[in-house]
Write the structure tokens for this entry.
Amino acid sequence: MSDSVIQIDRGGSNRGRRVCVVGGGIGGLTAALAFARSGADVTVLEQAPEFREVGAGIQITPNGARALIALGLEPQLQELGLQAVAVQPVDALSGMAVTRFDLTSQSPAYRFYHRASLVAILGDAAQNAGATVRFGVRVEGVTPQGYVQTSEGSIEADIIAGADGIHSVLRSLTGHTATAEFTGQVAWRSVVSAKNIDPVASIWMAPKRHVVTYPLAEDVLNIVAVQERDTWAEEGWHHEDAPQNLRAAFADACPALQAILAHVERPRLWGLFRHPVAECWSRGNIALLGDAAHPTLPFLAQGANLAIEDAFLLSVACDRENDISTGLKTYEGLRKPRVKRAIEAANANAKNYHLSGVPRRVAHMGLKTLGALAPNAFIGRMDWLYGYDVTAE
């Protein structure tokens, strides 16, 4: 058991506090588990009738894994996750690997999960720690006295954790009014059956589009494809699209990628929107986390990992302060700089994956040279991200 587990199990100011977590996704359930482990009386409000995640994959990088391990989930993470061995940029047109960056030295391990499996792990752990989960409850607002107004009445809470995603009800209550802007990109998500796949995250790069593939357990390949285009699609992961639209977007890709996309039957399509980081993450007894505070484009595999870090640190910051508002401001002050840096890096990847012409050839040559001459340089450049330990804050 790590020191951080011991610290969070002892409890401090959180002991006996009433914590209401709005949203039963990965960030919300991590917050519920962390607060429950520190002695709080936790209620999770989830508007869906059950825990449900789109059947797709998620990458938990070492920085996110550290928080989950500190919460006592290491055995489950090892059992249900598939350890990644490399990240491999690929020329989507020729099918040739540009280079390969080794991940086997990462500790804790970089792993691939089915989203539903990770949600189940967190949901079971949170409830075993004493948290109550209420399904089918829609949050409508918060009273000036700090009561959560729901479709089933009011709930009194000392701390309200807003983990209700990009369409957060609670975001506007912290004073955030900025609107999202369409990035000029849409994304498809799907999973297909596939056998004997190397545990590698492949980034198939083409002008104005790319595809990321990586395996999940039980012979399943996760696919996320992104295309630049003028017409936009609605945000959210639940909009079905015709598979031929996805295949047409990559009609000039190499045979290997086309063979993968040929197995896609029911892709989900959504528009990618750039949301400004909320100016204020807390007001009164409300604190935002994850996409409710800082929606992140899917070009760095950090959306869930940042939400996990948020949730862990929110609980610890509140546990160490008698005054709740001080704990919430401490949390916000510690998280904002890191989150902004990660979002900027994700935005940069969105451009780098889609280069064309001379810039594309130069970039691919640079990656190839880096992989050949300094194979550990990529991991070194990512140490600010993967090497970060939120449990040490």
Remarks:
- The longest strand covers residues 181-193.
- The chain has twelve helices and 20 strands.
- The two ends are 18 Å apart (CA to CA).
- Residues 1-7 have pLDDT under 50 and may be disordered.
